[in-house]
Amino acid sequence: MTSDNDLIPLSIDEHFRFSCSKQVPCFNECCRDLNQFLTPYDILRLKNHLGISSTQFLEQYTFQHTGPQTSLPVIILKTQHSSNLRCPFVTPDGCSVYENRPASCRTYPLARLVSRSRETGKLTEHYALMKEAHCKGHEQDKTQSVREWITDQGLEIYNEMNDLMMDVIALKNQYHPEPLDMKTNMMFHLALYDSDRFRTQIFENGLLDKFSVAAETLKIIRHDDTALLKLGIRWICSKLTPPPSPVRRGAGGEVI
Question: What is the pTM of this model?
Answer without folding.
Answer: 0.91
